[in-house]
Amino acid sequence: MTEKAVAYYRVSTARQGASGLGLEAQRTAVEALCAQRGWQLIAPPFQEIESGKRDDRPELAKALRRAKLAGAVLVIAKLDRLSRNAKFLIDLQESHVRFVAADMPDANELTVGIMALVARQERDAISRRTKEALAAAKARGQRLGNPNGAAAILRAGKGNGAAIERVRANATAWAEDARQDIEELQAQGITSLAGIALALNESGAIKPRRGGRWHASSVRNLLARLGLSDPGGALGGRS
């Protein structure tokens, strides 16, 4: 089976983005790597014009979502530019999406994990300094925060109920990631459970949460979690 890939490109200035030079070089590197490894790019590339100092990366979030849903590898051109951005590394590590950089093709999950640990260490140091500052303020008699907040959090985390809720929340979050694709299929007239399952299996855009292939029953469960109806009703054809 052909490996699937999703491309993400970034340039740091509008001038680079408008000229296409920065993006074109990245595209060439990514496509060359995918061709070398026999990977199929399954979606239009996600590209972003962002300052390296900014943490919000909406196109990166979309690329990670697509790669996660499709069980694909995320491919970028250059790790050296992105490795300085702690938020990028942490988001990448926590997404559990497979990752390869064209300029360092062997520096995937392990390298990113190490870089993220360094970034986390710095973030923890900042957090520690903040806590020390708050403790000093409290020692001066300054009242901080909601005195009932911590107790409420502890109560919410007790027992098996909290673990069950976390599982449900994870399943709901995964389903919400898939909502746009499902609604697009329904808008195209592919409305039956079997039809949606067939379309998803053919496109490979969304990998079933527990692996394998899509079936009418698994589509029904997904629609139910999303609160979407099955306009087609029957388990037959595409419409």
What's the helix-strand series? EHHEEHEHHEHHHHH
Rg from Cα: 22 Å
The tally of helices reads 10
Supply the CATH architecture of the largest domain.
3-Layer(aba) Sandwich
User: What is the terminal separation in angstroms?
Assistant: 29 Å
Amount of helix: 55-70%
Classify the beta-strand content into a percent band: 5-15%
Count of discrete structural domains: 2
**CATH topology of the largest domain, which one?**
Rossmann fold
Annotated CATH homologous superfamily of the largest domain: Resolvase, N-terminal catalytic domain
Give the number of DSSP strands.
5
Shape call: flat
**What's the main sheet like?**
5 strands, parallel
> What is the CATH C-level name of the largest domain?
Alpha Beta
Low-confidence region ranges: 16-21, 146-150, 234-239
**Class based on secondary structure composition and strand pairing:** alpha/beta
- Mean of all residue-level pLDDT scores: 75
